[in-house]
């Protein structure tokens, strides 16, 4: 189900944000062709999720609880593609945007979208975003730099910290890591158009509520989804399916009514 596109929302820069600086107009003297475009992540949870002090607590019908305190996502490469016919540079090639690597802290506890890339771009239409959730390695200088800046483990693409509590039991801390490699392709229909001197934001929504659940909604202990765990494949599949492009508010309302 698609959820709503948020445009011109407040911008919150991460400590390790990678900007689109340098993606200026093809003619740097023509300010009329410049526009501002940003990319942001937000997370969604169930209506019953408890949101407290930068943490998100999920529950199931058996009264088990999962509290998520931090989610870090590694992206090795990102490409934003233009759709309009005039999106070519002087060499006749598409004037796309490519960035990476980066490590992103996803927003929790009902926080607003977190901008992870943004800057001045050529005005026009953009129709597709491709990015690779991928493990970062130290044999690449750029990836090694990002690992050090983010204090992020090597050969890891996602890291989650929190606690898991069985019904009636005590909270047990966990650290979930995966080396999941997944290429995400999100198409914008209609394309996102930025006009001269305008400001637009493309928001990606992650359904965090879905990550650590079985098909019947029962919560999974994230420790059981680490490498070699019984739920490793289950959780990796659900993570890949949890990322949406946020579309128009009206479309979202219609979808909610139909569900």
Automatic annotation (TrEMBL):
Signal as UniProt keyword: yes
Signal peptide: 1-21
Keyword Transmembrane helix: no
Disordered: annotated segments: 79-99, 216-259
Entry keyword set: Signal
Segments of skewed composition (Acidic residues): 82-93, 243-259
Name of this chain's protein: DUF4382 domain-containing protein
């Amino acid at each position: 189900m698609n959820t709503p596109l948020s445009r011109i929302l407040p911008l919150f820069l991460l400590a390790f944000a990678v900007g689109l600086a340098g993606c200026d107009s093809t003619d740097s003297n023509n300010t009329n062709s410049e526009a501002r475009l940003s990319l942001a992540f937000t997370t969604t949870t169930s209506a019953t999720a408890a949101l407290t002090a930068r943490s998100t607590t999920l529950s199931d019908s058996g009264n088990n609880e999962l509290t998520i305190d931090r989610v870090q996502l590694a992206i090795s490469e990102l490409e934003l593609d233009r759709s309009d016919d005039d999106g070519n540079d002087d060499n006749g090639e598409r004037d796309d945007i490519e960035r990476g690597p980066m490590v992103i802290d996803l927003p929790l506890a009902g926080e607003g979208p977190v901008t992870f890339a943004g800057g001045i771009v050529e005005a026009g239409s953009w129709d597709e975003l491709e990015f690779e959730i991928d493990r970062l390695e130290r044999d690449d200088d750029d990836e090694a730099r990002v690992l050090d800046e983010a204090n992020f483990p090597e050969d890891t693409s996602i890291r989650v910290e929190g606690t898991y509590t069985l019904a009636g039991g005590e909270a047990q801390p966990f650290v979930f890591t995966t080396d999941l490699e997944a290429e995400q392709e999100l198409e914008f229909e209609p394309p996102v158009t930025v006009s001269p001197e305008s400001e637009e934001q493309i928001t990606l929504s992650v359904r965090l509520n879905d990550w650590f659940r079985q098909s019947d909604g029962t919560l999974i202990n994230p420790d059981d989804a680490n490498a070699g765990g019984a739920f490793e494949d289950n959780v990796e599949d659900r993570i890949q399916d949890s990322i949406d492009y946020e579309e128009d508010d009206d479309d979202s309302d219609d979808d909610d009514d139909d569900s």
